[in-house]
Design a protein that fits this description.
27% of the residues lie in helices and 34% in strands. The chain has six helices and 13 strands. A hairpin with a 4-residue loop joins strand 10 and strand 11. It starts with 8 loop residues before the first strand and ends with a strand.
């Protein structure tokens, strides 16, 4: 997932990845705290891993220097023991509980043509406008998103209705692992329930398979049951969970 949504800058410290992208999206501006021996040394007096505390303090100072909040992307089974309690003590709150869903790349995709769908290898201006509409602050986000998306291999889909974009999606491809990742799936609220999303996903997966992807993942927030039901109907199954811990 980290490779599918690369940050503009990544600083590695004691095996942790400190990612930043001018504050645009939590994933691209968060710590990915991976297990490392250097964070496991025990401080007998405090009962907390001295290396772990040092790593957290380093991360906090790094994001403070960027004028960004310190955010940890948390996947409990791949992070150092003791991090949950340490962040709780330091006033972090947990947000955006997210389910990771996966499936093998379908071998029998039959594309329909109920909708007009465009596929490109980079996001068009209209695609970015749909994802991040309007306003001066939104323009900053839109510019940064264009840079973020330009760093990897991906396919962008746009469903058009009466000449206007009504739904979008992105499929990243990691040639080394064979994984593809669905993201940035969005539909005009006034046009939901017509099958645009499922047809767009099928089209993106077909193109990902042509480029050698054999497995696909997506992330969906627990607070979005309608999307989770759609992905289940499309053959995706629960694979794991993550959430964010954010400094107050």
């Amino acid at each position: 997932m980290h490779r599918s949504w690369p940050a503009l800058e990544v600083l590695e410290h004691q095996g942790w990845l400190l990612r930043s992208a001018r504050g645009v999206t939590k994933r691209a501006n968060s710590v990915l705290p991976l297990k490392a021996d250097s964070t496991q040394r025990q401080d007998g007096a405090a009962g907390v891993g001295a290396g772990l505390l040092s790593a957290v303090q380093f991360a906090e100072a790094h994001y403070r220097s960027l004028d960004l909040p310190c955010i940890f992307q948390r996947r409990l089974r791949t992070e150092p023991a003791g991090l949950t309690e340490l962040l709780r003590q330091r006033g972090y709150t947990d947000q955006a509980a997210t389910e990771v869903m996966t499936r093998p790349m379908p071998a029998d995709l039959a594309e329909r043509d109920d909708f007009e769908i465009e596929y490109t290898v980079s996001p068009s201006a209209e695609w970015l406008d749909f994802m991040q509409p309007g306003g001066e602050q939104a323009q900053h986000r839109r510019t940064t998103l264009a840079e973020l998306f330009g760093a990897g291999t991906a396919i962008y889909g746009s469903v058009r209705r009466q000449g206007q974009i009504a739904a979008i999606g992105r499929l990243s491809i990691d040639p080394q692992s064979g994984w593809a990742g669905l993201a940035a799936l969005a539909t005009d609220p006034a046009q939901r329930g017509q099958g645009m999303g499922s047809e767009l996903i099928s089209g993106l997966l077909a193109r990902g398979r042509e480029r050698g992807a054999n497995r696909v993942f997506l992330q969906v927030e627990r607070s979005n049951p309608a999307a989770r039901r759609l992905y289940t109907r499309l053959g995706f199954e629960h694979s794991g969970d993550y959430f964010y811990s954010i400094a107050e």
